[in-house]
Every structure is written in C-alpha cells, then in structure tokens.
Design goal:
The chain is α/β, with parallel strands linked by helices. The chain has a single domain (3-245), classed as UDP-N-acetylmuramoyl-L-alanine:D-glutamate ligase (3-Layer(aba) Sandwich), CATH 3.40.1190. The protein is 38% helix and 22% strand. The protein has eight helices and eleven strands. The protein has helices at residues 17-27, 55-66, 82-94, 119-127, 138-145, 152-163, 206-219, 224-240; strands at residues 3-10, 31-43, 46-52, 73-76, 100-102, 133-134, 169-172, 182-186, 191-195, 203-204, 250-251. A nine-stranded mixed β-sheet has the order 3-2-1-4-5-6-7-8-9, with helices on both faces. It has a two-stranded parallel sheet with strand order 10-11. A hairpin with a 2-residue loop joins β2 and β3. α5 (138-145) crosses α6. The radius of gyration is 16 Å and the shape is globular. The two termini are 20 Å apart. The chain binds 3-hydroxy-5-(hydroxymethyl)-2-methylisonicotinaldehyde. 3-hydroxy-5-(hydroxymethyl)-2-methylisonicotinaldehyde binds at residues 8-9, 11, 16-17, 40, 42, 47, 77-78, 105, 108, 114, 207-208.
Length: 254
C-alpha cells in the first residue's frame, strides 16, 4: 500500500482541508496519514473562526508519526502559522521526505485571509525551495509575485517568477479567471496550458482536492505532468457531480 501524508486545516464540512484530502487519497487507493495544522469553524457559507494547532502538539504529531512511517509523498494545505511552516520544513529535512506538494493557501474563494502574518514569507522561503509541485490559484500567485494575475499571459509571467523561488513545478490554477478556465503548468521548460470547460457555480475545496490528487498520483509513481493532468480530470468530474448538503457552496463528489 502506498502512503501519503497531508498536513492541513480541519474543515468540519468535509469539503476542504484535511477531511477532503483523506477522501481524495482513498479515491486513488493511497493510504492517507493526516495531521491537522489548524482547526476551523466553518459551514458551506464560509469560515467563522481559525486557530493554529499548538506548536508542541504539532511537532509531536509530526515526529511521532514520522519516526514510525515514511510517506511516499506529502502535501501541505492551510498551515496558518509561521511555526507550522518551520516545523514542516524541519520534518522534511530530518526525515528526508520527497514528493512535497505545497498548496500555498492564502485566501478563501470568499476573500477571507487564511494565514497569520508572516506565514506566506515562511512558505516562500522554507517550503518552495524543497517542493516538487506548488499549486497557487491566481490570487495566491499575485500575492507571492506582487504582480496582477488576471490573464493567461499574466499567469505565464507569474509562473516564471514563482519558479525562481525554487519549486520544481508550478501549477497556477485558473478557475477564478474571467471568461476562460485554464491551469498553467510550468517546470522551466515550455508552458502547458491545461484547458477545460467552465462549470458554473461556487464550489468549496477544489484547490485542496486538486493538490491532494496530485500528491496521490506522485505517490503512485507518476511524473508531475501526468499527475497534474489526471488530477485535473478527476476534479472536473467531481465538480460536475457536486452536491449541496447546506445552504452555501457545493461540495465536490470526491
Ligand atoms: O482552499 C483553502 C482551504 C484550505 N484549508 C481549509 C479550508 C480552506 C478553504 O475554505 O477550509 C481547512
């Protein structure tokens, strides 16, 4: 059995964060290890409250688990605090972990800030240099590069800037673009434009599920471009079959 780890925020709706990541791993036949880095109060209409998991508890979760099991791939989602970023970066080094996928969670689709001050700088400085794939959406790409990211051309420029920060592969997700739906894949060679039909509606957890699917595919031994392509197909299907358990956004059928 292949084993992947997610270090992410807890989302009580099950649609995003740790809960969604574990369901995605299961869908790909990968055993999921899960460590919460933050706890949230939320429903399908939005986020009400976030707290970082205590630093001792987070460190002990990482060390005690990794002394026993070595995952073949891992992803980070909502780390929320700078100490969470530091602890994860230390664990990656101390336990020689590879196939790191970083979903640099910064803002929710409804615009809420999902990190404490300083966390994004820590992610850029400590996680980007050791990551195989990063999956910013256009808002996150704009925050990390300091440029506007509103078109396919902007995405290419931003991907080049992000590549200089150290990741092997950049995937900027374009689900929030006006008019087109295109994810841009860049590994320092050519650009791959992964286009898809725009599916109308508001869905919760698409970024989390996408990066979890990439993690699972890397864990199964696929090369990054193949992992990203298959992850995208999987998410498109899950969006098409979304359901509405609450009064707000749709949840993916993972
Ligand atoms: O997609 C960003 C995200 C990540 N992690 C958790 C979340 C969300 C968005 O709501 O709830 C736990």
């Amino acid at each position: 059995m292949k084993i992947a780890l997610t270090i992410a925020g807890s989302d009580p709706t099950g649609g995003a964060g740790l809960q969604a990541d574990l369901r995605v791993f299961k869908a790909f036949g990968v055993h999921g290890l899960g460590i919460p880095s933050a706890l949230t109060a939320q429903n399908t209409k939005g986020i009400d409250y976030i707290a970082g998991v205590d630093s001792v508890l987070l460190r002990r979760q990482l060390e005690f688990l990794l002394e026993d099991i070595k995952p073949g791939a891992l992803k980070t989602g909502m780390l929320y605090t700078t100490y969470a970023v530091d602890l994860v970066a230390d664990a990656i080094k101390n336990y020689s972990l590879g196939n790191l996928v970083v979903d640099p969670v910064a803002v929710s689709s409804s615009g809420a800030l999902l990190v404490e001050e300083g966390t994004l700088d820590a992610i850029r400085n400590k996680l980007f240099p050791v990551s195989k794939v990063i999956t910013p959406n256009i808002y996150e790409a704009a925050i990390f590069t300091g440029m506007r990211v509103e078109s396919g051309e902007d995405m290419e420029k931003a991907a080049e800037l992000l590549k200089e920060m150290g990741p092997e592969v950049i995937v900027i997700t374009g689900g929030h673009l006006e008019g087109l739906t295109m994810d841009l894949y860049y590994d320092g060679g050519g650009f791959h434009k992964l286009e898809s039909d725009k599916i109308e509606g508001e869905y919760h957890g698409t970024g989390c599920a996408f990066s979890a699917a990439i993690t699972a595919m890397l864990c199964l031994g696929h090369i990054p471009l193949e992992a990203v392509r298959r992850a995208k197909d999987y998410i498109q299907n899950a969006i098409r079959r979304a359901y509405y358990p609450g009064r707000g956004m749709g949840l993916l059928n993972l």
